[in-house]
Amino acid sequence: MTTPSRVRLTMAQAVVRFLSQQRTSRDGREQPLIAGVFGIFGHGNVAGIGEALQAFRTSMPYYLARNEQAMVHTAAAFAKMRNRLSTLACTSSIGPGATNMLTGAAGATINRVPVLLLPGDIFAGRRPAPVLQQLESSQSQDVSVNDCFKPVSRYWDRINRPEQIVTALPEAMRVLTSPAETGAVTLALPQDVQAEAFDYPAELFEPRIWTVPRARADRDRMQEAARLIRSSARPILVAGGGVIYSEATDALRRFAAATGIAVGETQAGKGALPEPHPLALGGIGATGTRAANRLARDADLVIVIGSRLSDFTTASKTAFQHERVRFITINVAELDAGKHAAVPLVGDARAVLEELLPMLAGYRVGGEYEAAVSVAQSDWQAEVGRVCAAGLPAEAPEGRRRVTQAQIIGVLQDALGPTDVIVCAAGSLPGDLHKLWRARDPKGYHLEYGYSCMGYEIAGGLGVKMAAPERRVCVLVGDGSYLMMAQEIVTAVQERLAMTIVLLDNRGFASIGGLSEAVGSGGFGTQYRYRNAATGDLDGDALPVDLAANAESLGARVWRAETLESVRDALAEARTEQRPSVIVVPVEREARVPGYDSWWDVPVAEVSSRRDVLAAREAYDVARQKERDFL
Ligand SMILES: Cc1ncc(C[n+]2csc(CCOP(=O)(O)OP(=O)(O)O)c2C)c(N)n1
Ligand SMILES: [Mg+2]
Question: 424 CB less than 6 Å from ligand 1?
């Protein structure tokens, strides 16, 4: 018997060397699973993973980020752009560096995109404890801040002995590459163990290919679904992110064209049926279009593909009002496929659509339905034109006339090419974009709307650009999100990555301000203003924040654009820039894009001294009656 050959490495060196050898493959196309490592060093990783990254820097590129939360967003955006077939790893020190990654981890897990997190951890050997930044517990010495990652990770492990990675790393890769299970994977790496040497089996470092499967659904369920479709008169397709991740967009187009069933898209699914298309209804749900929401309301069958059916998509379970509405769900995850008492087709979107279509031979929706779709679509196009063109008659409080957010969206729609990518996450922009934007390419609309995390935008834009350097990336960000996390502009400068950041300044939270008005609270606490000595509230003068100067100081090229003309000019000039560009546009706060036949459940106070709140509660109680159980 020959003894297997061994390689003596530190645990950290072994981790990095292993990661550099992992690839994914789907439909015969291969790519690296871990395309690089983002990090911020501290005592918890500099001598372990830091030393290893230096040693392997030719096979595993290292990127220095400015904030640990941001680097996880960057990794998640990268993975989303690569349809979850490739991602980035993130290394942090122990303590605050690690917990800074928690928000990013939650975002990745909720959005079902893979990220590999390698937080440093307290000494497994415990001798110097408590080390700097160590959380102590009086009940256990087996607790650190990294335990906080458990609920937000799809796989979590702590490597207390160097040999544990031999079994932990393959499990971590399995989860990262599983379409059904993917999300944040956290391997907590104690500071002392990172630096410890072990004789690892050489096979651990052999190149390995993780084949991403296209699971097929159960045959009987497929037949049941086909029967349901054949007996439906007013069906609708709801396309979620899974359609895009599965590269099922052509299959969806063929399915829709053959059956005549119109398609509404979730935030993650927008672009699944690129526009213009006679069956594209645009966004669906709380921030959906009138076209999609009317069709959804009357649908007797909803065929959901690759969606989590979040409250935004279902308009808090009020979107589907047909008395006997039924659901069919196509999803790789049983969790999602089981929602709304659907006929669950647990499988890959493309594989299932391709198998389902021949089972529907001869089926097509009726002429009345087709006419309704076409009327809804032209009515909606007219509305988009109206909203995007609408100037602002009123003078802004400062005596200046400001452009509206919808006008800027209209300008961007004209200025960007079909394969350019817009990136957005939080505030009032996602809803407006979901309604107004026409996605002309499946990868052209990048919204993080599972976690809707303020601060994702610029960090995410960086990840998108790294994943698709050939595309122009345009980040849309509100002033609130920008102030929360703009520092990755510096990382983009460092990497010489160009992206256009359009920063819409409405002095605070137009979105939550509007919501506050709607629940009767009058926008309380949502404006960026001085505290007013007279009222004691934050309703004084506007704050003297100069966002343009801020962006310039980080190394971006900056334009201050107050008119649509100047925004157009800046967009054209930014196109040739080799570094991040920031176009700062003051926009009118109160010019909102309306909702269209939809609703979102935000409970209003049942008792209050404010009459507006009580009125809002009354309206809320009425609206809530439309919420349905699908059992
Ligand atoms: C990290 C985080 N904190 C809080 C929220 C809640 N929230 C949603 S939108 C918003 C305001 C966003 O302000 P801004 O970026 O200026 O966009 P606007 O609402 O003005 O369009 C807040 C506070 C969030 N989504 N994410
Ligand atoms: Mg704002």
Answer: no
User: pLDDT band at residue 395, thresholds of 50, 70 and 90?
Assistant: very low
Average pLDDT over the chain, rounded to an integer? 96
Q: Which atom of ligand 1 is nearest to the CA of 481?
A: 15
* H-helix segments, 357-404: 367-389
Would you state the pLDDT for residue 3? 74
Indicate which ligand has the atom closest to the C-alpha of 405: 1
Cα 480 to averaged position of ligand 2 atoms, centre (Å)? 5
pLDDT of residue 1: 62
> What pTM did the predictor assign?
0.97
How many Å apart are CA 440 and CA 165, to the nearest integer?
44
Q: Which two tokens stand for residue 212?
A: 């991403």
Dihedral-angle region of residue 424 (phi above 0 means left; psi in -120 to 50 means alpha; beta otherwise): beta
Give the closest residue to 117 by CA, choosing from 152, 77, 54, 72.
Answer: 72
Ligand 2 mean position to 614 CA, how many Å?
27
Contacting residues for 541 by C-beta, under 8 A, at least 6 apart: 529, 530
Q: Which residues of 382-417 are buried (b: 16+ CB within 10 A; e: fewer)?
A: ebbeebbeeeeeeebeeeeebbbbbbbbbbbbebbe
* pLDDT at residue number 391: 61
- The predicted structure's pLDDT at residue 389: 87
Distance 484 CA to ligand 2 centre (A): 11
The single residue listed with the structure tokens 């669906």 is 284
Ligand 2 centroid from CA 462, angstroms = 21
DSSP classification of residue 216: P
> Cis (ω within 30 of 0) for the bond into 393?
no
Using DSSP, state whether 538 is helix, strand or coil: coil
Rounded Cα distance, 6 and 200, in Å: 5
How many helices (H) and strands (E) in the chain? 23, 23
Query: Which of 454, 481, 507, 589 best tests ligand 1's pocket when mutated (most atoms within 8 Å of CB)?
Result: 454
Q: Which among 482, 511, 584 is the best mutation to test ligand 1's pocket, defined by most ligand atoms within 8 Å of the CB?
A: 511
Spatial neighbors of 536 by CB under 8 A, at least 6 apart, are none
pLDDT band at 24 (very low <50, low <70, confident <90, very high): very high
> For the residues 143-152, what does the mean pLDDT come to?
98
Can you give the C-alpha Rg of the chain in angstroms? 25
For 128-138, what is the mean pLDDT?
Answer: 95
Distance 505 CA to ligand 2 centre (A): 6
